[in-house]
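Researcher: Please generate the 3D structure of the following complex. Treat every line as part of one assembly.
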Amino acid sequence: MVKTVILISLVFLFVASQELCDMNLGGGICLFGGETVIMPLSTADNLVGHWTFDDNSCLDYSGSSNHCKSPGPAAPSRSSKGHSLNILEGQYIEIPHSSSFESKIFTMTFWLYMHKDPSDTGLRWCPIIHKGTDDEANLVYQRAPGIYYDREDKFLKVYVSTDEMIQFPQGEYAVSNARIPYYKWHHIAVVRTQSRIRLYVNGIIDAVNSTNGWTETNKNPFYVGNTPWTSENCPISMYLDDLKYYDNRELMEEEIEAEAFGALGAIEPYFIRLSCINCAYEEAVEACPDTHHICTSIELHSSGYAVARAMGWTDWNSHIWSTASTNTESDSSGLGICCLNLE
Ligand SMILES: *[C@@H]1O[C@H](CO)[C@@H](O)[C@H](O)[C@H]1NC(C)=O
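Model: Done. Output below.
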C-alpha cells in the first residue's frame, strides 16, 4: 500500500515536471569533470516561494515548485541582471494555492516600482498583492494578505483577514506612514506575526498594528499586480521584482535591512527611524528608540532629508525637528526623524 502511494506520487511528480521539462535528471549536471556544476539555488529557511521574473515562465526558485499559472511581460530589472515583472494597467498574474501557503504567520518581501497613474477614475485603494478572493456581492473578503496601494496619496495598506470577521469584515490592517514615490524602486516587507502586522519600507520599520484575531488563511490563489475583480477599476501600472514568501516565519529586522540595502542609496536602513509625523518636539524625542536620537541638523543634511524624501515622509505640516531646533514651542508640530547613536 505504502509502495503504491509512493509510486503514484513519484509518477505524479514526474508528470508535473514533464509538462515543464523535456528532460529530467535526478541530480546535478557536471561539466568538464566537475569543473562546472549546475545545482539548485540555495534557499533560506521556510522560503517557499521566490519569483525572480528572470525566466519567461514565472518560475518559483525556492525549490517548492510554486510556479505561476501564466507569466507576465518582462520589464527592466532592479539590478543589472535579469528582468522584473511588468504589470500594465489592470493586468495581473496568478500563483495557484498550495499547502506551502497555509500558516497563520508569514513574511512577504518584494521590490516595487510604481508608475504615475494616468487616470483619476476607478477605485482609490487598489490591490498589488492579494491572496484570496473578495466577494463584494456577499461582503465576504479573503485577504491573507492583501497589500493595497492608495492611488490618491500613495500610502500602502496591508490587510490580513482574521477570525474577528464581524468587527473587521475586510480584515484587520496597518496603513503606512511612507508614501511610495513614482519612478523609483522600493523594497517592501510585510511580516504577519501571531498578533501583529508589521510593514517595512526600504528596510525601515514604517508601520505596526496589533490585531485582535488570528489569521484566517484561504485556499484561493495569489494575485500579483491586480485581481480579476478590481482589474477594470484599478488601471495601475508597476514593475515588481524578487517576490518572496516565507511560510511560518517572521523575518528578522536585520534580515530585512540586509535585503533592502541599496533602496536608500548608500545609507543603511538601520541608521534612520521614523519617530512621528506632525507631532510636538517632546513627543518626537520620546518616540525614538533607545538606540537612536532626534537627528542633529548635520545628520539631517547629510542623510536625513534624503531618506525622508525617499520614504515619502513629505506631508509634515511645518518643519523637521532636529536637536538644534530653536523652534520648540509646544503648539507647533513637525516631522521627527531619529538617527542612530554612533558610539
Ligand atoms: C490599526 O487597526 C485599527 C483597527 O483595529 C484601526 O482603527 C487603525 O486605523 C489601524 N492603525 C493603523 C496605523 O493602521
